[in-house]
Amino acid sequence: MSTRKFPAGPFSYPTTPEWAENLVEAIANTCAAEGFAPVPRQAVLEGLAPALGQGEAKRVIERRRDGRFLLPTAYHVEQRGTDGALLVLKVDLHGAATLPWVINDRTRSAWLHPSGENQERLEDLVEQQQLVAAWTVGVERAKTARRALASTAAPEEKDAALAAVAVAEKELARAQEELKACERALGGRRPLPVVRAVTQDGVPMAALTTEPVSAAMAAEIQRYAVDVLRRRARQRSYDLAESLVQEGQRDSTVVVLQRTPVVDGDGDVRYVWRGQHATGANRSDARLEIFGLSAQQSLTGVPQSVLRLPGEEENRRLVVRGLGEILRRISALLNAEYADPDRDEDGRAQRAVRIAQVSSRVVIGAKRPERLEESLRQLNVNEHLRGQLDYEDMDRSLGLWSTLVKAYQAAGLLGDLLAREVAQGRMPAGELDEDAVADALVGARALDELAVLLTPGDEVSAMTLRDVAVRCATVMLFPPVPPRPENLAPRAAMPTGRYWPVVRAALQEASWGQVNGSTAKRRTEIWAAVTAQHFLRPGPLAAAERLFGKPEVQFGVRPDARSLVSLLTACRQGDDAAWEILVRRHLLPGLISGAEPFVAPNEGSFQSADRKGERRAPANSVQALVNAWTNPPESVTRDLLIAFAVAVLRAPDSPAGDGLAPGTFWAPDAHGDPREGVLADKEWFDTLFPQTSVRRTRRPQPSSADSTSSAATDSGGDTVELAEEVPESALARMTRLRAELASLVASSTVNAAAVAEEINQLLETVEGAVRAREASGAPEEPAEVQKLYMREFARIKAEAGKIGPLLDKAALAVMSL
After folding, report:
1. What is the chain's mean pLDDT, rounded?
2. Greater model confidence, 50 or 731
3. b/e string for 627-656 if b means 16 or more Cβ within 10 A?
4. Region (Disordered): which ranges (predicted)?
5. Can you tell me the mean pLDDT for 424-451?
6. Which is it for strands 75-78 and 86-94: parallel, antiparallel or unpaired?
7. Cβ contacts of residue 439 below 8 Å, gap of 6+?
8. What is the 3-state secondary structure (H, E, C) of 201-225?
């Protein structure tokens, strides 16, 4: 179809087939000369050439003796000098030609891991959505038929029409309830689609492709991505669409060409090529809104009624699918409207004229195309970590996690760290597929890629894969640091090993000696965000507050070599240390992010109607569970504790039971058997494991014997015990006390918080007793009893009064440290 048949104007028409072929040749030759893998031919012909603005193809191409090439000023290299280097073409694209990319790190927390189970749940959801849509139409048709009945119709006809409406409404209500159940099964989220580099004759190219899906599935994923993106964009202080209408798009964004294989109803597969915004996704969505299109329509097909040309008969069954035809029609309609001198100033043509063409940087070549998705993700992360539109807390933490995984890969230490610390040296680092493992860790692939890290003989299940993913996140965020050398001078720089500098650089932290509570809080938030993504209902970041402190940051967390099964066996045999490891390193994510969370943030209204249990610090809840092993409260047995631990580990995968929602379980009794009818929730947990004021054990600095990075040496002689103690030198005493100071400060902070919680609980109890006495009309306590209480309160106040002067003295003394 020739563009001369359509009215001229500011909205461009697709590139001619001749110049599209010239563009293919120029891109291939330029990529070969620069040493980049090019985009496939079909990506240029179907995804790029139709989207180019007027005359853009001719503007960026030059003719040489050995063929056509891109002009040197028309392209440049992003991330030059790295394996993630990208060759991008600087062109103007049609404003309605591109889509928001689904894989946006600002919305990463809104997506699930792309496991097989989640994909099946999504298919059920889409089928149910179609059923709801069908019954919605059925209800409208039944009501229309009832209204169309004449007043003289027979009673039997009227009754039949009423019965048809009732049946349709009943079926619609049932379908809507089943749709809600499908949403709950996915936790209100969607599995992130897996994208990989397109291969041509077995060679990866600089474009992406998804797995084949139905048109309804593709549309639902795109719709959900846009919906989440819009929710995140509400924090803008201005209306983005109106900004584009008034000022246009001033900055250039990165676009990648992506193929979506769509399976039609007859089983045939068609390949849909579209440009996707790796950066600037919000602007892409706003532009489509201004043009009057939706992203899912642009991907799977626009109804002809939306793009009907003048004189064309309306066909409700006709869908416009090709990108060239979509853009040709929308340009023709808007050019005709714009040419009208009496056009509406608030019409589509007038509103879209400033974004008729937008500046873009289209990826046309990649140094390592198999890592194309990861390179684009890093561009997106960097734009938002350093840009004006901030992440939400959860997404910011996931963006930093993605940066950290990339940093380990770039340093060549990802496989080494995981093979040494998680696999416990059972396999050489070279046997790990680092790319696949990295994708699984950031949620771009299913956790099945981590199965190689499991202990031999372990069952490969959702529970064990989730646990090994938590182990990986823990050791990568808190990598082991070698112990302080005995002969190191007091003010000499601490040798931190190979892993700590990677984390410091990726998260932009201060030096090892300046680690403080803020550093520990930041890493803990990242850990909480990463582990929460393995659950359908992620818990809040504040629920992990102070569960990792300065000692874990400075000296790391070394994973236990035992598998989950071995740890549970050790607990059944009475191993105290195994229980604490099981709680702090393996149960903790499930305690925070379960369907019924047991550890919640120490904030919010205590009188909230939907709040369960007590308001208590997360560290206190965890410590109470740890202490219950050696100092069990009333009615708590080790059988109960082990049964509770097993239930927490398996809960995320538990189906709905008799009276139970998915992911929940009945509370165990003293014998470890479930007590049917008693739900295990925070209220039950806080009652069974009350707040504790027991001082936490100080976490010591690891010794050289505990470190796998330091080799043990033989003393060369027998040891002897002297009659008298060897006096400690002043230098050794100073070094030892300095090392103890940080732990004592952390421990004092926890104890002070625990005291404040107990005093607050005391106040609430007294006030509650007064209100209850007044409501019941009971007499006051005798004066002697009141005096006794006042005497005890005065004693408490006197003890508390000692804290301030002591802290003042410590603050003065620390200035001379």
Report:
1. 87
2. 50
3. bbbeeeeeebebebbbbbbbbbbebbebee
4. 691-720
5. 90
6. antiparallel
7. 373, 374, 445, 449
8. CCEEEEEEEECCEEHHHHHHHHHHH
